[in-house]
Amino acid sequence: MKKTNRYLSMLSLLLVVAFGLMACDSNSTAATTPAANTAVAAAATATSAPAMAVATATTGAATDAKATATTAPVAPAAATDVPPAEVSDAACANAGKVDVSKVKKIAIESGATLRFSGWGNTSEQQVTREQLCRFKQAYPTIKVIYEPIPDNYESKLKTQISSGTEADVFYVNPPLTDLLVSSKKLLKLNDYMSEANMKKSDFFESLINIFSRGDDVYGLPKDFGSIIVFYNQDIVAKATGAKAPPADGNWTWDDYSAFAKSLVSGTGESKVFGTMHQPDYARWLPFALANGAKVLSADGKKSAINSAEAKAALDWYYGLYKDGTAGESKLVSAGWPGEAFGKQKAGFVIEGGWMIPFLKDSANGFNVKWSAAPLPKSPKGTYGDLLFTNAYSARADSKFPKAAAALVTFLSGPVNQEAVLITGFAVPTLKGYESNAYFTDHAAEKALYATASFGTVDYYGPATGVVQKTMSDAMNALYLGKVDTAGALKQMEDGINAALADI
Amino acid sequence: MAVKSLPPQRQGMKRKTRENVAGWLFLTPYLISLIVFTFGAIAYAVYISFTDLKLFGEANYVGFGTYGRVLDPAAPLNKFWKALGNTVIFSVVVVFFQTWLAILFAVVLNSKIRGQRFFRIAWYLPSVTASVVISLIFFWMYKQQGVINYALGAIINNTLGLVGVHFEPVAWLDNTTTALPAIMTMNIFTTIPTFMVMFLAGLQDIPTDVYEAAKIDGASARRMFWSITLPLLRPVIFLVTVLGTIGTLQVFDQIYVMTNEGGPLDSTLTVAYLIWFEAFKRNNLARSAAISFILFVVIFVFFLVQRRFLDRNATD
Fold first, then answer.
1. Model pTM?
2. Tens digit of pLDDT for each residue in A273-315?
3. Which domains does chain A have, with CATH numbers?
4. Which of residues 158-177 of A touch B (CB under 8 A)?
5. Residue A3 CA from chain centroid, whole number
6. CATH topology of domain B86-310
7. How far is A183 from chain B (nearest CA, A)?
8. Is the Cβ pair B197, A477 closer than 8 Å?
9. Mutual orientation of helices A308-322 and A485-501 as an angle, nearest 10°?
């Protein structure tokens, strides 16, 4: 009798547990518990989601550009929540010193305390802390509290702004800027800039115009990413008739095709492709832009993508994929081309600055001897590229607007940007660094910096996300054989016009 | 009597009032949080679904305009109907298979087989693991050079390969035809155990003398299953079907983790994902709220239909 009682009570306990679990889990949305987060961190390595492994100087927009429509989605990031911490003198004991006499200081409030938020993994956070330490050398009376937001930055920032609890200074990307400027949440920086002896024209036009409305500046560009060629020096050396691309970028699309073809080797599972041509708009568009194509009309109200220039670029880009010279990452079981390059399954890839820390990270276990070169010029002889950028902005209703502006102008100012350049973390957004000593033996950074003068920012107004997805979806349809290149461009045109009509 | 006692009536009322007051006091904290965070939030969502609120914007009343825009198939880039189609297919297939397989597993586990306790624990594990973790693991398994393709290749090439059939590795999550079935399979696998436990409980409720009587009458095992077990399990089947439908019509985290914004060319886009997408990526709160309420209506209609056909206790 007692035994059945015990079994019955155990069974009822099991049922209660089952009901409880089902009530909060089962098919419905499951809360990611801390245990799940660490399990996620263990299960998802650097090779599964580029957004996690690599969060470099480039933007949230760039991480979207990395994860194409067909490759790994942005999995819940492995980074855990980092508590806000004051950037104190003790924390800055090891930071390098800067020549603060070169900084033109602006007037600030006394006793100012600033909160600063940004995205980035642990190594990025460390770089940011060093920058904040330099800021403290220039403005010792300002107290700075650093609150990193390693994942879901946009959602978290929007939630904070809804409740008025956002930081005083934070990163913004172009879509966020649009949203926040129209709802008047960002501080206008012009007066503070002139006080700090900085002009709008000190920055590359394409970069600063995205964060300005006419002459009113609402964000100062922090850094930028773009697309260049990363090639495997060993594969190039072993291939017959392969010549490394020139460091000044003076090569054509035909040179590029010949180069890719010369690097192809092997068949089947052991095939090494010349390069990776993903069905991702952000990899094809640089070539189309170089050829003179435009995504939107001049007034930004209609699509302009269905043009002869864009078709020529798409025909050429897709052609290399069709004849097997270029592959895509999923064919070599990689999440994205960077991973394929690291695994030495591609002779070269067209990627951005995020490749540098990704290839260097010993956790990924890649051992590739690589160098970099700019993209080729178009058949018209012109250069073009896609830029991904973000900026520092200050909140309009900050309690210490002058101090906030001081932080923004310092971080994007020449003293700090040059210090960041030397650490190899990012390339500057200010003009005039072409002949900097750092670039002499850093080919990738040099090629990246050069793109700012002829590149176009990857931003298309409030419907940017949909425009980007439309272009990638059309390329996906092309690669799946559902349309030809003319049909793909028509699909892009219809989709973009629909997206612009939906605002 | 030495002690003067109150008339029983007044004593009873006082106790009852005291008990009532105590009951309400215990309930109040939970009630307040329920009213504010659940009902209050729902009421606010209903309100904004009748406006055109965008993030950080102002709410202007537009009546049924937002609902009209969501339900309009000709509206530019309106993915609602595709998402609804995907969700309904997902729900019907998953609920069907998970109910039948759960009954099957429960019947197997209820019989006196060897290792019963081990199987009960092993088969219950998928329900205990967080769905995000399982999604990630399956994401890895479904890769083109992942475990599933490897296993299928090994099996098929070694058996049917002798007659010339060769298995090509399939990119399960990248094909428009296989992406949704792949996620459905994963979902069925994850949710069978929970419902299996419910069926087990239901099975153990059935008195054994009914089976004995049937056996005396000469019924086979299969006849007993169809004519005795299933009808007596009807309330549990109703419960499992309803819960399964409600859950599958709201599937979100598998789509979020395993696909990129709704799968290859929107083939795995679901309504719950669209709700999140409209709110957090397109900053369109009013549209997101409208879709939520349309989903609520859909789920409620499904529930009413199932109640009509499956619930014997329902009075129409």
1. 0.76
2. 999 999 999 999 999 999 999 999 988 889 999 999 999 999 9
3. 85-224+390-446 (3.40.190.10), 228-386+458-501 (3.40.190.10)
4. 158, 161-162
5. 63
6. MetI-like fold (1.10.3720)
7. 6
8. no
9. 130
